[in-house]
Amino acid sequence: MEVILREDIDKLGARGQVVKVAAGYARNFLLPKRLAVAATESNKKIVEQERQAYLRKEAKAKGEAEELGKLMGAVSITIAQKAGEADQLFGSVTSKDIAEALAAQNYSVDRKKIHLDEPIKQLGEYKVPVRLHKDVTVDITVTVVKEE
Q1: Do strands 76-81 and 136-146 pair parallel, antiparallel, or not at all (unpaired)?
Q2: In the predicted model, is pLDDT for residue 108 greater than 90?
Q3: Most buried residue, 1, 30, 92, 143, by most Cβ within 10 Å?
Q4: 36 forms bridges with which residues in the sheet?
Q5: DSSP label at residue 109
Q6: 3-state DSSP helix/strand/coil percent for the chain, to nearest 5?
């Protein structure tokens, strides 16, 4: 069965692409979840219009993310935490703490966009990647200091 994809689907295809899939996969998964529509001429026109609107919206979002990235390129955050003898933190610094520190500097960034491999547990200076858009990533400097 041929269907037109309405979303990007891993290992199947990109938005707006016509793909051939098993009838059961289309009937039981793709069509009910509105991930695809049947490949008719009228549906091809509708999906093409949706794709054009999506591309315009995506270009605008990427432009905004690039502007925010330029502003955030020089951002440095200092977080004060209680620490023990060997500069070991009592607790840790997580993406939530970094998002709150960014909000205090008037940068509204969702904590899910801050990519920490694991929470910071030592005092020091760290480069933390912030993914503003799928194509735009900015490294910010996070300095963890001892709370007095």
Answers
A1: parallel
A2: no
A3: 30
A4: 5
A5: -
A6: 35, 35, 30
Neighbours of 1 (CB within 10 A): 16
Per-residue pLDDT, averaged over 114-120, amounts to 90
Checking if the pLDDT of 47 tops 90, the result is no
* Structure-block tokens of residue 50: 């949706």
Cα–Cα distances (Å) from 29 to 44, 90, 122, 136, 140, in that order, read: 20, 48, 47, 32, 41
pTM (two decimals): 0.66
140 and 128 in contact (C-beta within 8 Å)? yes
The answer to whether 54 and 45 are in contact (CB under 8 A) is no
In this structure, which amino acid lies at residue 103?
A
**Would you say residue 86 has pLDDT above 90?**
no
What CA–CA distance (Å, rounded) separates 83 from 28? 55
In the block, which residue shows the tokens 């390129």? 73
Q: Is the pLDDT of residue 27 over 90?
A: yes
pLDDT of residue 87: 81
Average pLDDT of the chain, as a whole number: 88
The CA distance from 134 to 65, in Å, is 10
